[in-house]
Structure formats: structure tokens, C-alpha cells
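Priority: low. Protein: DNA-binding transcriptional regulator, IclR family. Input follows.
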Amino acid sequence: MRQHSGSPASSGIGVLDKAMTVLHAVAEQPCNLGELCARTGLPRATAHRLAVGLEVHRLLARDGDGLWRPGPGLAELAPTAHDSLLEAAAMILPRLREITGESVQLYRREGTQRVCVASMEPPTGLRDTVLVGARLPMTAGSGAKVLLAWADPQTQRTVLADALFSERALLEVRKRGWAQSAAEREPGVASVAAPVRDGAGTVIAAISVSGPIDRMGRRPGARWAADLLAAADALHKRL
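Result:
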């Protein structure tokens, strides 16, 4: 059975957090009540009550097989959503791709996973393709190191238990302000990443350049860290 990947952040409002857990689980893959309980860890009665309530508000719906799936209410709300990070990325990522000639991505952390929220690839040549919406582990890769370096201590402890890097590596990332990796997330792929901060200075995302090791080298930071930091600063100023 496929497990729900990543948990939404806690607001401290129990019923709201549980409802969001249900929404995230169903968004990952349509499911019946038993599968919903397995993914969320919620008691059967609680999961059923929340799913039915979300169905009443049209945030969930059931298909012909009786499986819950995202409902039409989500699509109706989506056009009014405003994401300043993605709006800023649309202005900054094309230039970074042009400078580097490599794939560029923007990641956000969700629980113990990172989600690609923006991605652009070079028009030609071998490339590292990461689709928007892709969920990647936080245990490998430069983007993971950046997001984990500024994550809360509990998340750090949880991820570091299975990570391909150490707590010392995270200290180094915080010290120099960027991270790099070579053949860590995927064989033959190298990447370098930097933190993106909001107006208050909080790290909210990681911007990354990735490509074949043959082009990027085993120490891609030496080549692209300065341009990446400039792009991260440009995003920060737009936020």
C-alpha cells in the first residue's frame, strides 16, 4: 500500500490539522476508508467523519468506485490563490537557467519531504528533469541539505537518521550559505542549492541548479554558487 508522503504543518488546531492530513492523503491518490486510515494514522471513525465533512463542503468527492478524491471546491478556490514565491520565481528562474545552461528548480519542505514547486530545463542536451509536484526525500541532494539545515530540530533528527549526510554537513551549509551534492540523489547527477528567505528572513524554500556530473563537476558549488546566491537574493528582494 502506498503511504501518504509528508504531513502538513501543525497549526495547533487539532481538528483542522487532521482535516488537512485527510486532504493531503486523498490528493496523493484516491482511496477508500481503510486506505485513508492507513495513510493518516487516524482512527476509522475520525477519518470517516472528517472525509464526509470535507465532502459536504465539496473539498472531497467520491467517484463511481466509492473512492474519495479531491473535490470541485478545491478547483473553485484555486484561481483566487496568491503565491508570491511562485510569482517571483517566474521572473528569476529563466535568467538562472540562461546563465547556467542547466536545469533549475525551486523546492519547499513539507514534513520530511521536499516538493518541487517550480522547474525549468535547458532547451537542448542532457538534463536533470524534476517535474513540478514531484516529492523527493530530504535524505539526499543539495536542496534537501539546504531545507534541512534551517528546519526545526525534530525534523532534523528524524531525517538525519536515514540521511546520506551528517549533522556536520548541515553546519557547513549554514556557515557558507549553500549546499552541493554529486551522485547523491541520483547517479550521474550533481546539484548546488541555496536558501530562499521571505521578507522576515525565514528560509521558506531552496533554489537549485542540477545537471549531469560530466558538465557540473563533482564540486558544482565552485562554478555556480555565486550565481545561485544572487538568484536567491533576487527572490528574497521580490518577497
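Residues 221-238 form the longest helix (18 residues). The two ends are 40 Å apart (CA to CA).
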